[in-house]
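Lecture 7 notes: from sequence to structure.
We start with the chain below.
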Amino acid sequence: MDRLERIRRLSAAPGVTGLEEGVAAEVLRQLQGLGIRAWQDKAGSVFGQVGEEGPLVLLMAHMDEIGMAIQAVEENGMARLWKVAGVDPRVLAGSRLLIHTKDGPLPAVAGALPPHLQRGEEAPRAYAWEDLLLDTGLGPAAKERVQVGDVVTLYPHAPLALLDGRLSCKTLDDRGPLGALLDLLARLCQNPAPCRAVLCASVQEEKTGAGGLTAPRQLRPDVAIAVDVCHSGPPETEFRTHPLDTIVINRSLCLHPGVVNLLETAAKKAGVEYELGAGMTASGTDAFHIAPQAGGIATGLLEVPLRYMHTSAEVISARALDDLEKVLEAFLRGLAGESWKEALCWKD
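Predicted structure tokens for the same chain:
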């Protein structure tokens, strides 16, 4: 299976944060297809391990997605929405959505009062949650199919290949990098690195960070690398964004400087150009939750720039995903011997 097919299957699988059963099953299928040990913990995160000797390295990418839930169903069959995590109502009007009912998925569209019919204070303004209606086409019969609390996801369109190696679909945050990690594990099965590499597809990163909190306590890795996305904007938008075709090594203050140095060394050895990112705590990623667990874990964060985050048309670069795999492979292969221990020692 190539990486594009991996991402297509991951993106299509439902997995709103806290309810990741669908995508978890897909990750397990892909890991089991590699013929490696794969398992799921009580929190719901999915793991796969390659290698039986050497330092234990945790590679984490979250598999949950943003989504919504049904808040009410009107007498006319129209449904009201509320966010579960990370959804901006301003971009939903006119979107195709999928309601996950007890009887199976039900397609719908998000609508709102069009500008042509708005009057007085209604016009013009950005849509808010109370403006949006979910239309299944059923009319009053929708009340028999749709229940309050049913989960709603962005519609799983097939990935769209754009020019210059760019890919667009929903949930590339964080299933694009997750697909790259699965691709990397497939290569390590053929040519193992001198370590025990454990992939964790984590749960609830978009809301509670549950996967980042629980997995490192179980595994107690020697080193951990969280892989996530960051923002890429149009060329004129430079502040807090990065070019789409680069990868970013994050130097936020909660991250271990020794791991940052090892990642920079790996990037240079792999011939990969990168940018540095920084923040106070790396909050908003699993790295923030991993670092303080189990008495403190040497943690790093690699990020892949993404355009239009948390929409149905996220855009990522295939070259950046290539480079992500190259840097991580060089990092893992650089863990032979004992020098990595010295690199992770705090310098007094």
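Points to note: The CA atoms of residues 248 and 275 lie 5 Å apart. The chain has two domains: 3-65+170-343, 67-154.
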